[in-house]
Amino acid sequence: MALRLAIVFPGQGTAGGEVSDSEVREAVEARVGEGEVPYQLSVFASSVDTLHRLRESGVEPDVVAGHSLGEYAAAYATGSLSLEDAVRLVAERERLMSEASTEMPGGMMAIIGAGTHEILEALNTTDGTVVAANFNSPRQTVISGEEDALEVVAGRVGGKKRKLDVAGAFHSPLMQGASIQMNELLAMVALDDPKIPLISGMDGAILAKADDVRLALQDQMLSAVRWVAVVERLAALGVEEIVEAGGGTLIRMLKDFRDVEIKGRAAKEVLV
Predict the structure, then answer these.
(1) What CATH number does the domain located at 5-102+172-270 have?
(2) What is the pLDDT along the chain (272 residues), one digit of tens a residue?
């Protein structure tokens, strides 16, 4: 049977919004107090708050996926990860990534309009640490690594280039230390089998078991986000509509998928 509706969750690069859901707010405050909420945790909390409001409005996903940080909200949406554990893990994820970014500085750059093969060839012939971090759409690839290496790659490929406003070189080998510590935390968390399919952001695979979810989250910090594979998997499953529990960044990228006919809406268009 086709899975008609997907809800997807954005990652870093989106803005966290207000949280009206008391359960979500209490879980966050129990972790960080009543002061300013760390960025990644604010994005996660906003996504889960939006999920709750969608469900209260009768919008129930048949399948979910998350982009990078968004996979924690997606895992929660499936019932695989508890809210309390998700809040703790996301807070620790931000702390570890921030420390790694201080120790191993770097950045990220979006390249729009250049072919994937062209970008990968430039990466393979550039000295220094720089990798493809996000395959966001057929027209957009994000590279991540040392600042000098980013500039070299940018000069070797066509298309438009845009530096991302992020703290470090995420989804690159510069996150190795953070990844090791994050994996230790994930190894101790109790996970349940997802109640609905969860699509892996690493390769578009369907995560149907608790151990699959754990491995996906453990590998996430160093692996590229292959959002192209996620969208193609959703299309293959027969998904007719994608609702983003965020501002619409992921929905806007759908226009780059010429062979995929899926309707996309941001949550604010649904919650009217």
Answers:
(1) 3.40.366.10
(2) 568 999 999 998 776 667 888 899 999 999 988 788 889 999 999 999 999 999 999 999 999 999 999 999 999 999 999 999 999 999 999 999 999 999 999 999 999 999 999 999 999 999 999 999 999 999 999 999 999 999 999 999 999 999 998 889 999 999 999 999 999 999 999 999 999 999 999 999 999 999 999 999 998 999 999 999 999 999 999 999 999 999 899 999 999 999 899 999 999 999 97
Q: Where in the sequence numbering do the catalytic residues fall?
A: 68, 171
Q: Give me the architecture of the 106-163 domain, per CATH.
A: 2-Layer Sandwich (3.30)
Model pTM above 0.85: yes
Please name which of 100, 103, 102, 76 lies closest in space to residue 88, comparing C-alpha atoms. 76
Tell me the chain's radius of gyration from C-alpha atoms.
18
Q: 259: buried, middle or exposed (CB in 10 Å: 19+, 13-18, 0-12)?
A: exposed
